[in-house]
Amino acid sequence: MKLILDTNIVLDWLVFGDPAVNVLQVAIETKRVELVAHALTLGELTRVLAYTNLRLDSQRQQSLFEAYRRQVHAIDLGSFARDNLQLPKGFPVCGDSDDQPFIALAYHAKAILVSKDKAILKLRKRASRFDVRIVDVAELTDSLTSTKPNA
């Protein structure tokens, strides 16, 4: 199962240790899921880790980023960029432009986007018309606990 984690999910996992993502953490550790990222989504994580309200010094920011980076497979999509997401006509547009690269990456990587962001979750039905699956943590947990690990 290929997953794209939105930045808030990464924060819940690596910064806050939210128990809601424990099943995800186990799935990552046991290689039941593959995390996919792109330079755009990694850049967003770097930017968010520097938010002053998180109170993370630069060394902690770097160590969290590196911990995440070790877990993901960063893909290269050629000219894929914030101003060139290479999406088909009619593809849903997120109200928060910072979230659009995550949805676009899910489309290109044929991966499931895991989010708790209301602006992203609101696009589920429209994104599904383009074979993009968007789930929240509870849905992902249900999916991971209802399937058997790879043999």
Describe this structure in words.
The chain is an alpha/beta fold. It has helices spanning 7-15, 22-29, 39-49, 58-71, 100-109, 118-121, 124-128, 137-146; strands spanning 2-5, 34-37, 72-74, 112-114, 134-135. The chain has a single domain (2-146), classed as Rossmann fold, CATH 3.40.50. Helix content is 47%, strand content 11%. A 5-stranded parallel beta sheet has the order 3-2-1-4-5. 32% of the residues are buried.
Tell me the number of strands: 5
Succession of helices and strands:
EHHEHHEHEHHEH
Quickly count the domains: 1
Biggest sheet: strands side by side, in what order? 3-2-1-4-5
Distinct helical segment count = 8
CATH class: Alpha Beta
Question: CATH homologous superfamily, by name?
Answer: 5'-nuclease
What's the architecture, going by CATH?
3-Layer(aba) Sandwich
CATH topology: Rossmann fold
Biggest β-sheet: count, sense, barrel? 5 strands, parallel
State Rg.
15 Å
How would you sum up the global shape? globular
